[in-house]
Amino acid sequence: MRRPSVPRPSKLAFVAAAAAMMALPVLPLTASASSHGLNATKQVEKNFRPLPSFEPLVKDVKPAVVSVIVHLKTQKIAYHSGSGSAPQYFPLPLPLPFGFGVPFHVAPPQHPVPTEALGSGFFISPKGYIVTNDHVVRHAKSVYVRLENGQKLKAQIVGTDHYNDLAVLKVHRSTPFPYLDFGNSKAVHPGQWVVAIGNPFGLSETVTAGIVSALGRYLGSIENDRFIQTDAPINKGNSGGPLLNQQGQVIGVDTAILSPSGGSVGIGFSIPSDLVRRISHELIKYGHVSHGFLGVEVQAVSHTMAQALGLKSVDGRIVGALIAGVASNSPASRAGLAPADIITRINKSPVTSVNELALALSEIKPGSHVRLTYLRNGKVRHATATLEKRPKNPNSAFQGESSVAGGPRQQDRL
C-alpha cells in the first residue's frame, strides 16, 4: 500500500512564503510627487554643471610621456627591512627585483644578480630627445623606453648632470615624436592645479592630479635644488616624469617624495622647469654641464649669528650666506674672502639664502668674472672672482681647511 506523498520542507516553505507575498500590497518603487523634494540625486541633476576635467589635457599629452626601463650593471641586491618610521626622502626609480615580500626564513642572495629599474620620462623634441632623472639611469648597462602605444625602443644616454639630477636620452624612428613644451616655473604659485604622469610601480601612463603645495623647498638630496612641492600622488617609478600645468606645459620633473614608508603621502617634489630647460639644452649641445666653482663652504645665517653680527632681517628672514670655510688656492681665496664673511649679492642678484647662491653660481660658466658683495665685521665690501670648473669631488678642496665654529648646520660647498 502506497503512503501518501508529503511535500518536502523546502517546497512547503517556498509555497508558504509565496502565499504570504500574495497577501501583501504591492508598493511602487517610484517616489510620490510629495517626496520629490527629498531626492538628493534629482536636486543635483536639476542644477548639474560639469566640473572642469583633465581628460582633454591628458589625452593630448600622454603620447609624449614614456616609461624608462634600465638594465643595471650587475650588482649584489641588498634585502633589508626599514629601520623605524621617521619620514625619509626617497628618489623615485623602482628597482626590480627588490626585497618586498621576501620570506624571513629565506637567506638573501650574496651572488651578483642582474637587475632592472623603472622610471619615467618625456619627449622635449620631435627628434627623440627625452628628459628623465640622472638617478634613474646612473648605473645603467642599457636603457630602453616604452611608448604609449607599447613600442619599445633602445635609448642612448646623451648626457647626465649629477649636480642637478637630470639626464637626457635619445631614441630613433622614421617618424617624429610628440613632445611637450616647458612652462615658466617662475610663474608657478601655491594652489595651482597640476597633473603628474608617469610609471609608478611599473603601472605606465598613470595620471594623478593635485595642487602646488609650496615652492623653493630645499631637501639636500641633490647639491643644487629648489623643488616645487606638490600633493599630486607620485611614487617609485615616477622619477623623471612631467609635472604639468593646466596648459599642458611641463613646470617640473618629478624627482622625490617625503614618506615614512616609501609610498606617497601627498608630499612630492619636482625640479623646476626653468632649470630643466637650461640643463637639458646644454646636455643636448655638449653632452655635459660645466658648473662654476667659487671655493666657499657656506651655511645659512641663524638668528643667533645675526644678533651677534648685528644683522637685520627682511620679512622675518636673515638675508645672506655665511662663509664657513674657504678652499685654499680657490677663486674665493684669491678674491680675499674669508670665514665669517657674509655674501649678500652676486653680480646684480641679491643672495637671500644659501640655495639662492648655489643656483646663481650654477648658472655661471667657469672662467666668468663675478662681482660679490659681502659683509665683514658689519661693513659692506666688494670683491671680484673668476670662477673655476666645479671639481667632481668638491669636498676634497676643503680638507684641512678651518671653518666657522658652531653646532649642526646646513652647508654647501660651492
In whole angstroms, how far apart are the ends? Answer: 110 Å
Q: Rg from C-alpha positions?
A: 30 Å
Mean pLDDT: 78
How would you classify the helix and strand content by structural class? alpha+beta
Total of DSSP H or I helical runs spanning 4+ residues: 8
The counted number of beta strands is 25
Q: What general form does the structure show? A: globular
Instruction: Report the biggest beta sheet as strand number plus sense, adding barrel if it closes.
Output: 7 strands, antiparallel
The amount of helix comes to 10-25%
> Regions with pLDDT < 50 over 5+ consecutive residues?
6-24, 76-89, 94-109, 405-411
Strand content: 25-35%
Provide a descriptive summary of the structure in words:
- With 414 residues, the chain is α+β, with helices and mostly antiparallel strands.
- The protein contains eight helices and 25 strands.
- The strands form five sheets. Strands 16, 19, 20, 21, 22, 23 and 25 form a seven-stranded antiparallel sheet that branches. A six-stranded antiparallel β-barrel has the order 1-4-5-8-7-6.
- The radius of gyration is 30 Å and the shape is globular.
- The N and C termini lie far apart (110 Å).
